[in-house]
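pinging the channel bc i need a second pair of eyes. not urgent but kinda urgent?? the chain im working w is below, pasted from the shared doc
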Amino acid sequence: MNKSTSDLKKGSGVIGRAGSKSSEKVEGRKRTTLQAQRFCGGFNDCMSMGSIVSNNHQPHQHHHHHQLTSKLEQQVGDLEREVQKQKELQIMYRKRMERTQDYLRYCLQVAQENGFLDLIIHGKDAPQSNIMNAITNSPQTPTPLHHHKNSDLSAVTLQAKLNGWYIAQDEIEFKEKIGHGSTAEIYKGTWRGLDVAVKCIRPDFFETNENGVSFFAQEVETLSRQRHRLVLQLMGACLDPPDHAWVVTEFLTTTLKDWLHGPGNRRNKAERAVPLPPLEDRLAKALEIAQAMQYLHEQSPKLIHRDLKPSNIFLDDAMHVRIADFGHARFLSDKEMALTGETGTYVYMGPEVIRCEPYNEKCDVYSFGIILNELITGEYPYIHTDYGPAKIAMEVVEENLRPRLPDDDDGRLEELLDLIRLSWNGDASIRPSFANITGMLKKLLKRLIY
């Protein structure tokens, strides 16, 4: 074989190998294409559409993300408010503990002055005169539960039967429930043909409170003494606790709170539900409250209410006031001071009562000052803050917080505002008596009308 033939064969072999490799590449591309087609015949179209589909879903995803963010922010806000509330309660309880310690020191001093301390420590007989004097001048302390039926309740039951206001269980025909309180349910009922309100003390009140029977007897006995056109009238009582402890009074449905703010409990208390009554009508209500309280305070011994607030003041058909709910009331001698702290409702409670300090009838004057301002402004007390009752109590004591006074650009309310400030003064000795308040309101009302 000549050289040219040999070279030709070599060349065709190279070309053959190159052609073989080229053919393998083509086959490889075909296989890749077939594999792609096996997954999706329009793979490229899918890829281009994918971005469009993704873009179409973005607004929905963004909205969903926004909802989650808002929900989380709300939960964080709720937690922050709860933490703040717990901090406020912690401060309040610390202050309360300090006041309790002060009160215990005061009790220790009284015990020492009257000979009780020697009796406790050494077992010595304290002077009888000192013991009797301390008992006479001490706050009214209910007797233990097992003595009630032989003392407090028996005395009230006898008084009720002698004076004709003892009511047997079967004399009351119950109708619908019209309200409730912390210790009782209130029903409309019929007694001897009259519509009456029946306050039924819950049985568990007596089970959980060893002094419950005494408190019940005291409320009935207190109400039975009252004979005034501006004080709720007692019709009678069923005196068989724990299941039949009923206080039966005249039937009234409208409270001062309903008249001023509208019925029910609204979530948004900043908005009025009813038109604000004329100023002279509001002042007339304030005058009647003051007259009723003057009557209570000028009894002998004087009676302090200790829970004066608009929901405990009823209005009759002629829109005249009736002071009601004597569950916290108690009698005080002229120089006696009450020692039961935090009695009543925080928003209307005097600072001395919040601090658990000894107090007298001027605690009712403080409550009246808050009510008088509420009548003039038409606003719930402390509506300009977002404080709860416990925080309000703490601020009243620590920062001298009071409700917002009404605007008086023309000076027409100057004397009235002075009366409000005097009535809710932090120093109880500065507060006027209800006799003075009645006189001032009569003059102001007369000037307003004429």
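so Residues 8-12, 32-55, 126-150 have pLDDT under 50 and may be disordered. and The first strand starts at residue 172 and ends at 180. — does that match what u expected or am i reading it wrong
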